[in-house]
Amino acid sequence: MKSPCVRLLIIAIFAGLFAGCSAESKRLRVLERAAGYQRAGDLERARIEYQNVLQQEPENLPAHEGLAAIWYERGATMRAVFHYSKVVTLAPGNLEARLRRAQLLAALGKTADAGREAISILERSTGMAEALVLLTESVRDAADLKGAEDFLQKFPEKNTVWYHIATANVLNFRGEQDKAKAALDRALALDPKSAAVHSALGGFYAVTKNPGQAAAEHKLAAELSPIRSRMRLAQVGYLAQSGAIPEAIATLNEIVRQAPDCQHAWRALAQLAVAEKRPEDAVRFLEKALALDGADYEALILRARIWHLQGGVKKAIAEFQRIGTMFPGVGLEKHQLGVALLQTNDGAGATTALEQAAGMFPDNFEAVILLAQLQLRAGQYQSAANAMTSVLSRRSDLVQPYLLLIEAMKGLGRLDALVAVFAQNLATNPNNSLLHHMLGLTYGQQAKTVEARGSFEQALAVAPNFAPALAELGNLDLQEGKKDAALQRAKTMIEKAPTLSAGPLLAARAYEAQGKWSEAEAAALEAVRLEPNQAAAYGVLVHAFLARKDEPGIGGKVEAFLAKFPNELFAVRVGAEVYVAFKDYPKARDLYEKFLATNPDFTLVLNNLASLYADQLNQPDRALELARKARAIAPDDAAVADTLGWILIQRKEFAEALPLVEESAKTLFATGEVQYHVGLANRALGRNEPALAAFRLAVAVPGEFSGKAEARRILAELEQAK
Question: Could you give the domains of the chain?
Fold first, then answer.
């Protein structure tokens, strides 16, 4: 007979076993219930059930698999990446999970990482066809191409849809579009209802400039795909790019009607609202996405971008930095952080952020180009040249990298070498109008106008409608005083390329040179209509308004112009500059104040308005308030420092003013007005030697400013006293 202690021990053991069995059975029932919800399309209930399992067992593989698939379908990229990563950790042989994670990395722009993962998958299973497609989509240079071709040759199942799509990707990269189309046709013959094939055909027709076919293929791909599928988002993207915004919005509205938990559809609606300048609607759509997932990475970034666009630059910077802390190592926010920091004149911070963006996402050409511009500003010509050469090796059709490369090579004193490179490329590709044009621009930097004109004319011989070359020839005509010839070129450009702003802009400048101000105004307005941020056109408008300041009704023309572009920064600057020239200071003030009501942190407007209150409106307190705010937002801006310093000088607060104007003078050394301010502050504090040096510089700098006569008078007094 067993003792009571032994009997109690046995009972305890069996109780524990039964409890364990009971817990496991309960967990299995929850997993089965979750899977049932998932199959039925009730993703939220399924998510909750899977999450309940993970609360009890954080390493439960089926729960992570279920959540990964749910978040993938809903478009929650980072959550899907997290759960797929857990699946791969728990089950390294799950190649499907590795593939989905790699596809998500590619969607985030981490192309190199996606390509490496695709290679890893194919090394484990040469028959995983979707990984082959992903690898070919990740090709960016000759080495990538060679690796992809090797895997294509080794692929065992060569008569499959995915193999033919991968083959088409490689052929497209090599520029063999006819062969690429044949490969896609073979894929279509194998499976006429493959959404992937129709999507690939849509992309092919878009690149080969066949918009009707592209739209039809993208539509068919969407119709063949589930409601939350990324194929439907690809169709929306094509519609938006082709200008069919209402149709894109209608498509997205139908998606969220059927699947209100589709986060990437809400984000796409927000992006279209931003493009249409409907920020309130964009924020409302993002709130829908964030209600579904408060950690929606892309939604958080887009919301911060909207704050930035609305003038809340400091708020946006704080949010970008918070996002970076929430998602360390991802880095998608770094580009926008750099742009925002640049607006506050934090050049060092912007450079660091853009370096991170360019390093993590080398295919983000916008970030790489912006970084190169900062490098050029800092005199880092070789770094900028290297970056632009790298960009052009992959995208030789982009114009701006060529322009920055020319500037970098000029800084390095190597324009002759660049001419030789362009000439060498043209020897093997003589019908490249863009290369002829860039050679002409390089000659222009060397002041070789005859050679420049010849290159631009050669570009037109290759492509008669090449508007940039026509514009540069028009610029040369204006430089040489050939006003009528420039105007004729402008009319030709308008006829051949009516949707480009370059033609009306050249016409505006030609009319300006002829003193035909009404015609110049009309042409400049047309240029602005075609390209609202066309700064050169605004310059013509200022001249056109000021040249007719005594003309009856000119005020009405200015007001009509402002009414066409309400609250646009360039328009506000034009109007304010014109009103100041007309000495209508209250109207200039009202323009700036109205702009600040919706863009409260815009440094340039804060600074200009502070100067206006100080110098023309005699409201020193309001001037000081605005100048201090501008300084807080842009502590590294030399112009802002000088404005605040000048206002403090007017208030006789010289001790605080001196370091500000001296700081400004380090950057704006050759600006007479800044040196005048330095001189005034030093003299008031009894520092006659530095005051004398500053007044000498102020007087010596060419050009007039409001205090130059006073600077001469004080300089004479100081020199006489010495």
Answer: 475-595 (1.25.40.10), 600-722 (1.25.40.10)
